[in-house]
């Protein structure tokens, strides 16, 4: 019975029965209701079909070219508003009809015509267009073979005025020439089909995305169009990916939009506004000094938030598109972003003379690093920031012979402006969180590869390895009682026979070395409950697991490389990055509190990576350094020596130090105090040593932690 109803609903004459008035809007007619009935009957008929054959109602729809008629009425807007109804009907047909239909000529031809109508200026049907294109893309994603049926019969390899027709010309001009040069007798290939479809669909989708983004400001329409783009770009066919990457302006337009959104961000932006609530207190990496619940509150809106949100939303979208796309398209888009945004726009801003400009753009870059997750875009970003050098650095290496941007960014870590230094250090900390081996190699490992920071001829044994720690009150590195205190040390709780593991013994000594480094009168731990080094163990273990998982496939050795005799006489240079960090550590008693926190945070991140050379250089107090070489422990010893000299001329030092600590913890109101910078530096120094001790502790071999206990001497 429903067959007869269907013939009535979809009869062209019946559809236009109430359209005698050409000015009457379509919504005031029975057409929307009739289209709904047509669709409901088609869906019902399909559900009743038990075999793979076309039902009577679908046959009638196809034989009488009902879709062609609807497409013509929609294009002519007859009656007014008809295009909207047609787009909705096609979208629902492609979505709700489960059987393949796009390979049928009386379906794919009207679909082609509707695709050409999408993305036109002032269409007033952006929502319906986005929904229709998404339905088409979903079908193509599900059954890529239908590309060969959607496309027109033509050959792109044609000559026009004795020149090959290029695909880079404007879409409208290309379609006009294509219609003039249409030849039904030219052989057809799948690749040529793909080209026609992508020019008429993909570029239109992309154009719709850009237009809707500017008009609707990330509305549901824009999101639907962006979803359509993701579907198309993830089609695995190599020919399709090559077309999108090489013969359409898709990648260039996406990168151009990224530059446009970035340029709208005002330079009056304050870097603190860019910190998301969970990372608002990133700079305070020490849990004992984490002041309080205020850091968990959401930051208020700031004037440039809308522009910032738009930019990072588009960056996230491009990053996701690169992640989902085939390799050739992902690489092409990543390179386009590299050339247009990173080199063409961002690099001049980072190298400018204005401190305000450098500060803002460095902060934006730091946030951008946090947002980028796709391997292809991350690779381009790392190459942009650090270059591709892998050989060990020389002291005299300065621009213009080497990577200028890398040199400048590292120099900014030691900038005269403390704000620029903190922001740039935060940028490098974000980089160290990224799963790219080249970051560690470029910044640090290439300079430690030869291990010539060790004194030539020095053995691998530690001078205190045979010392019984259970009979020692503090680290064997110190013998003076002024360095002993109440900080819990690490002990081997099992029998002596179980101490054959040299790595376990060595790490225990390392932990105690860092715990005993700060003199007793400069310690505040004993005056604060629950502020021992063990407060850092949980975070250190979490960071170690993260870094170990990230570097598991980087091919790092398990043990240090044997000393190379060819490098014995070499003048060791720790590299530009570590040099700046060590210089900052040397001034820890003179620098602002926030800057000290960020310097120690970067060094802690480096120390937690499970590379044997990095561990040895940053966490081994017992290595015999070659002449002129510095290590992290040796720098801390120098700072402690300087501190001991200052303490002698500082009345009530310990009491004032405790008061400053209580202020930092929010237990007392902050007041003006002489030598506040020095006192805060001492507190950071103490906490940093405890954090390094915790990192050394968690680097014990798996299962060895249970053999170690803390005790008070």
TrEMBL record:
Domain FHF complex subunit HOOK-interacting protein C-terminal: 574-666
Pfam families in the record: DUF5917, KELAA, RAI16-like
InterPro entries, per the entry: FHIP, FHIP_C, FHIP_KELAA_motif
Family that this chain belongs to: Belongs to the FHIP family.
Protein name per UniProt: FHF complex subunit HOOK-interacting protein C-terminal domain-containing protein
């Amino acid at each position: 019975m429903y067959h007869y109803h269907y013939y009535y609903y979809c009869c062209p004459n019946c559809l236009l029965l109430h359209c005698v008035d050409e000015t009457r809007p379509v919504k005031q007619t029975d057409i929307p209701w009739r289209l709904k009935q047509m669709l409901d009957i088609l869906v019902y008929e399909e559900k009743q079909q038990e075999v793979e054959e076309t039902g009577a109602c679908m046959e009638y729809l196809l034989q009488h070219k009902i879709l062609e008629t609807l497409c013509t009425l929609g294009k002519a807007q007859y009656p007014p508003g008809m295009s909207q109804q047609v787009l909705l009907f096609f979208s629902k047909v492609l979505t709700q009809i489960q059987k393949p239909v796009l390979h049928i000529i009386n379906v794919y031809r009207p679909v082609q015509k509707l695709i050409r109508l999408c993305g036109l200026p002032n269409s007033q049907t952006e929502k319906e267009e986005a929904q229709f294109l998404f339905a088409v893309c979903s079908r193509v994603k599900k059954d890529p073979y239908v590309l060969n049926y959607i496309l027109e019969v033509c050959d792109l390899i044609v000559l026009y005025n004795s020149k090959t027709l290029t695909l880079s010309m404007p879409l409208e001009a290309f379609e006009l020439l294509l219609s003039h040069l249409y030849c039904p007798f030219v052989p057809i290939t799948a690749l040529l089909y793909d080209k026609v479809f992508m020019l008429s669909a993909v570029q239109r989708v992309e154009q719709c995305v850009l237009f809707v983004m500017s008009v609707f400001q990330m509305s549901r329409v824009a999101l639907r169009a962006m979803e359509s783009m993701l579907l198309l770009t993830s089609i695995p066919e190599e020919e399709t990916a090559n077309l999108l990457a090489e013969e359409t302006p898709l990648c260039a337009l996406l990168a151009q939009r990224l530059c446009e959104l970035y340029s709208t961000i005002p330079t009056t932006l304050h870097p603190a506004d860019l910190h998301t609530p969970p990372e608002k207190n990133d700079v305070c990496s020490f849990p004992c000094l984490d002041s309080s619940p205020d850091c968990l509150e959401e930051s208020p809106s700031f004037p440039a938030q809308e522009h910032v949100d738009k930019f990072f939303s588009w960056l996230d979208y491009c990053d996701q598109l690169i992640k989902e796309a085939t390799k050739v398209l992902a690489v092409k888009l990543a390179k386009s972003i590299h050339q247009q945004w990173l080199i063409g726009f961002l690099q001049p801003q980072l190298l400018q003379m204005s401190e305000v400009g450098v500060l803002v753009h460095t902060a934006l870059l730091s946030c951008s690093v946090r947002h980028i997750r796709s391997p292809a875009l991350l690779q381009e970003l790392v190459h942009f920031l650090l270059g591709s050098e892998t050989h060990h650095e020389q002291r005299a290496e300065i621009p213009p012979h080497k990577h200028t941007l890398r040199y400048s960014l590292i120099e900014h870590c030691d900038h005269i402006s403390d704000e620029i230094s903190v922001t740039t250090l935060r940028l490098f900390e974000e980089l160290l969180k990224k799963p790219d081996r080249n970051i560690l190699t470029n910044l640090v490992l290439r300079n430690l590869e030869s291990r010539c920071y060790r004194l030539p001829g020095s053995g691998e044994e530690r001078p205190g390895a045979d010392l019984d720690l259970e009979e020692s009150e503090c680290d064997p590195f110190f013998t003076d009682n002024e360095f002993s205190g109440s900080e819990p040390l690490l002990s081997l709780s099992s029998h002596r026979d179980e101490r054959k593991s040299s790595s376990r013994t060595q790490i225990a000594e390392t932990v105690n070395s860092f715990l005993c480094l700060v003199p007793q009168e400069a310690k505040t731990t004993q005056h604060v409950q629950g502020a021992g080094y063990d407060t850092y163990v949980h975070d250190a273990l979490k960071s170690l697991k993260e870094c170990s998982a990230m570097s598991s496939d980087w091919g790092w050795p398990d043990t240090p490389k044997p000393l190379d005799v060819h490098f014995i006489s070499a003048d060791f240079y720790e590299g530009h990055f570590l040099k700046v960090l060590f210089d900052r550590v040397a001034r820890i008693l003179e620098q602002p509190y926030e800057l000290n926190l960020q310097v120690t945070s970067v060094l802690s991140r480096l120390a937690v990576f499970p590379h044997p050379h990095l561990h040895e250089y940053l966490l081994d107090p017992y290595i015999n350094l070659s002449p002129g070489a510095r290590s992290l422990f040796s720098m801390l010893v120098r700072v402690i020596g300087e501190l001991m000299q200052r303490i002698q001329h500082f009345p009530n030092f310990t009491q004032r130090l405790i008061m400053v600590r209580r202020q930092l913890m929010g237990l007392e109101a902050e007041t003006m105090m002489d030598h506040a910078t020095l006192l805060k530096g001492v507190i950071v120094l103490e906490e940093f040593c405890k954090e390094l001790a915790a990192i050394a502790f968690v680097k014990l071999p798996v299962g060895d932690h249970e053999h170690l206990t803390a005790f008070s001497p």
